[in-house]
Amino acid sequence: LFQGGYLSMVSSTSSTPPRLSSPAPPPLETIVSHLVASKRSLSSVEQVWRGHEIIETTRLHLEASVITVARSSFLRSGITTQLNTLKHIHAHNKSVEVEGTQEYGAVLRTLNEAEQRLKATMNRLRSTVIESRLRPESDQPKSLLDFVDEGSVEKVLVTIQEAAMVAQLALQELVDTNAGFVDDLGHVEELINSPKYAQRDMFDEDEGSPSKTIALVSPIPDILQDMDGRSREMADNLESLVKHFDLCLMAIKQTEGGGEAAIRMTAGLPDGEGLKEDVAGAPEPINDQERQEMLEVLATDADQVEDVVMEIRDHVTAMETQLETVVAYLAQLEHGFSNISEAFRLLGSIGSRLHAYVAQSQVFVMRWDEEKAKIKDRMEELSSLEDFYAGYLGAYDNLLVEIGRRQFMEQEMEKVVQDAMRKLDTLYEEDSARRESFKHGYGYFLPMDIWPGLINPPLQYETRQVDGVERVPDISKSVIQRAIRRVEGSRKQSLA
Q1: Please, are residues 212 and 13 in contact by the beta-carbon 8 Å criterion?
Q2: In a 10 Å sphere around its CB, with 0-12 CB exposed, 13-18 middle and 19+ buried, how is residue 442 labelled?
Q3: At what angle do helices 28-41 and 288-302 cross, to 10 degrees?
Q4: How far is 134 from 137, CA to CA, in rounded Å?
Q5: For 195, how many CA atoms within 13 A lie in the half-sphere containing its CB?
């Protein structure tokens, strides 16, 4: 009955080596102290009950976690499907925004280039001062731009700017709407994909998931299995403590005067309460050898009582820590479910605004088409004005060239006139000399009334400019030569 000892068979500590010889019976005080310590160790039953409560609580948490995970998975699946649909809608809106931005930017660049060309042409008109000899002397110096209505240019530019501003506002509204749309979708995605547990070893990457979420592995089943093992060990340890207490009672009863001594020695101590009832009753008869074996087992087990009690407490402490992990895990699941529920509510509010999101892109397309047509028409006017002003500038250069040509022709005419006058003067002098010679040779003999015209001088001619015709303005050759170079450069550029 007493071979090996009860506690040595269940304790995690090493067993005491068997005795080689039977020692002397322990003093009564030692047996009583073993009894008191054994009775005190029975208070570990509270730890065992606490372990049982922890296991029951953990089972309830497991059930709650399974329900929460199932509800979260169902909601997340539906939200993910709706989210993918909304992403496709946003992608369409974004493509409209990108295309509109690119077209608007291209139109602005074209507009800026045309405006810069027109302004450059107008600056050339402004810097080109009309030759003073082409204008009345009383006029102030004027440029080519003074003969142009700049108001028409400003009117066209203002119209283009107004159309561009309307298009820009429509584009900005679309950009803002898309930004709000993507913020809403991002908030939903953030809520359904938020981390649900703090321990990294509790995660399992699920790369096949469309949303690339982190799949959580529940720690509760492993913890519950470990708790069951600890509970069984605690029950075995408690059973060993009870048997050890029974053995202590038997040793007291088998010792003469042991009961009275135990009651007397524990009087007034908390551990002595109820001891009188425990030691009451007649002991079972045993022989000396059995009593000796009983005392040896008692001595062996008494050394392990405190270790067994500590082992029970360690199990409970570990289970309390595990319960904290379970509670934290469940809290994270509930927090995740709360986030998913919030994402579901947010998805509903996005649905109520979805019509506005879609309509905004359509409104932009209509406005942009309208304003783009206006800008195109005004751009054609701007291009016509630029062509006209460039032609005006070129015409002035050609005017200077024409003046140069007319100057040349006047000079040629004057050369012809001067040559004719020289020839006429020569003929006049020759004719006058011959008339004078004839008069000296024959005038003495001829009566004056035979031909009154005999003494007349030779015919004389004169050349003069026709009245009412002005001469070509005297423009310097350097001015005309620069105009010729500009005209030739423009002609080569148009042919290139």
Answers
A1: no
A2: exposed
A3: 50
A4: 9
A5: 8
Residue pLDDT, tens place only, 115-143 = 898 889 889 999 988 888 888 877 888 88
CA distance 103 to 490: 33
Decide: 263 and 275 in contact? Cβ < 8 Å: yes
Contact 175, 99 (CB under 8 A): no
Show the tokens assigned to 492: 């080569």
Residue 214 pairs with which residues in a beta bridge? 205
56: exposed, middle or buried (Cβ count in 10 Å: 0-12, 13-18, 19+): exposed
Quick: pLDDT tens for 271-321. Answer: 444 444 554 455 566 666 666 666 766 667 777 788 888 888 898 899 999
Are 140 and 152 in contact by the 8 Å Cβ rule? The answer is no
* pLDDT tens sequence across 171-188: 999 999 999 999 999 999
* Cβ contacts of 378-382, under 8 Å, gap ≥ 24: 378/156, 378/159, 378/160, 378/163, 379/110, 379/111, 379/114, 379/160, 381/156, 382/114, 382/115, 382/118, 382/153, 382/156, 382/157, 382/160
Q: Which residues pair with 216 in a beta bridge?
A: 203
Kindly give, in sequence order, each residue whose CB lies less than 8 Å from that of residue 122, ignoring residues fewer than 6 positions away.
Answer: 145, 148, 150, 153, 389
* Helix, strand, coil % in the chain, rounded to nearest 5: 80, 0, 20
Determine the Cα–Cα distance for residues 419 and 463; give it in Å rounded to an integer: 11
Taking Cα atoms as reference points, which of 311, 329, 371, 388 lies closest to residue 148? 388
Helix locations, 303-446, DSSP H: 305-442
Cα–Cα distance, 440 to 462 (Å, whole number): 29
